[in-house]
Design brief:
Blueprint (H helix, E strand, L loop, with lengths): L11 H5 L25 E6 L2 E2 L5 H8 L2 H4 L2 E6 L1 E2 L1 H9 L6 E4 H9 L6 E6 L6 E6 L14 E4 L4 H13 L7 E4 L5 H7 L4 E5 L3 H8 L3 E5 L10 E6 H6 L1 H20 L1 H11 L5 H15 L13 H13 L9 H4 L9
Parallel strand pairs: 1-3, 8-9, 8-10
Antiparallel strand pairs: 2-4, 5-12, 6-12, 7-10, 7-11
Length: about 350
């Protein structure tokens, strides 16, 4: 992971320092738009996981390549603001689908902060949560985090999961200082030396190196918590119950876009740039190249999107053992396995 070819251009700075908003630019819009079967397209609002970075470009690919239209959808893609915000927006009915970090969703559900949502497919088979730093900070292993200052957004999954990660990695969490930071400012804080590390997904490595002009050092949570999934696609419990076939069609189209994006990362980056002016195609492609290793696993085989009840139960057990859940939950409370792709 650390040796990813540095294909990121300096223009990635704009991507790192702003949560860019996308424009629809959808030629399928309009009352007379038709799907693959000739029926009128169903309008759907989709939220990305966070902003419009390369890691979320597969949704734009599904739109631009016509996968959504073939499945009968006219999709408006909007930038999400992280797990908590995506859940609340979908449960509130302002959007129908979006990806969240499954561990973050478990923490929300098990903590009583959110309900009435279900996951219907995995985007990444392993969590991409990580602590990111740069060379020269004296951080090469989790234990080195003690005595250091870290920054992340309030309520982020990296920060919320840190006590569990620290416990499993042998780190005294009380010796680590966390300070709040705006998402778009985190990499700048790291580059300026304001903090020693930041919460970040592993796919942020290329952009970190572009922004800081230093070699990034990543401490992936998946190194010590291997059963945790990464992002999963969610919808509201109401939609899952009332429109199961619609959910399956949407999921299939989105996963088709994910597969295409991973196979053609450079093209995916260009399609993102076509819709999001501030996007950098090289940065997007680099993120997708890093993400590819997290999308499939020995559990899922070649099938994208699968979710395993046993693995979810292990994730719940990890969080319960760390005292991170206020109430007992089961895999079926957060996953609709009847709608998820089968391995």
């Amino acid at each position: 992971m650390r040796r990813l070819t540095r294909t990121v251009a300096a223009a990635a700075l704009a991507t790192a320092l702003a949560l860019v908003s996308g424009c629809s630019g959808d030629s399928d819009s309009g009352a007379d738009a038709k799907g693959g079967n000739g029926a009128a397209l169903e309008k759907v609002t989709y939220l990305t996981s966070f902003g419009n970075f390369g890691r979320d470009s597969y949704a734009w690919v599904a739109k631009e390549k016509g996968f959504f239209k073939e499945a009968g959808f006219d999709v408006d893609i909007k930038p999400g603001q992280g797990t908590n915000a995506v859940i609340s927006t979908i449960v509130g009915g302002q959007a129908q689908f979006g990806p969240i970090d499954l561990t973050g969703g478990l923490l929300q559900l098990g903590g009583g902060q959110a309900k009435d949502f279900v996951a219907v497919a995995a985007i990444q088979q392993r969590t991409m949560a990580a602590i990111a730093t740069v060379e020269g900070k004296g951080i090469a292993s989790p234990k080195d985090l003690e005595g250091k200052k870290l920054a992340d957004t309030e309520g982020s999954v990296v920060r919320n999961l840190f006590p569990t990660y620290a416990r499993m990695a042998g780190v005294d969490a009380s010796k680590v200082t966390w300070v709040p930071g705006q998402a778009q400012a985190l990499m700048g804080m790291l580059g300026s030396g304001t903090v020693d590390g930041i919460g970040q997904f592993v796919v942020g490595q290329p952009t970190i190196e572009t922004v800081t002009k230093q070699k990034a050092v990543m401490l992936p949570y998946s190194n010590v918590m291997q059963d945790l999934y990464g992002n999963v696609l969610i919808t509201s419990s109401k939609i899952a119950k009332e429109k199961p076939e619609m959910v399956k069609r949407f999921t299939g189209a989105l996963l088709k876009g994910l597969d295409y994006a991973l196979t053609n990362p450079q093209e995916a980056g260009e399609l993102l740039k076509k819709n999001v002016d501030a996007a950098n195609p090289a940065a997007a492609a680099a993120e997708l190249q890093l993400m590819a290793g997290y999308v499939r696993s020995s559990n899922s085989g070649t099938q994208l999107g699968t979710l395993d009840s046993g693995r979810v139960a292990k994730s719940i057990a990890i969080l319960q053992g760390a005292g991170a859940l206020k109430q007992n939950i089961t895999p079926d409370q957060i996953i609709d396995f009847s709608l998820a792709p089968k391995a």
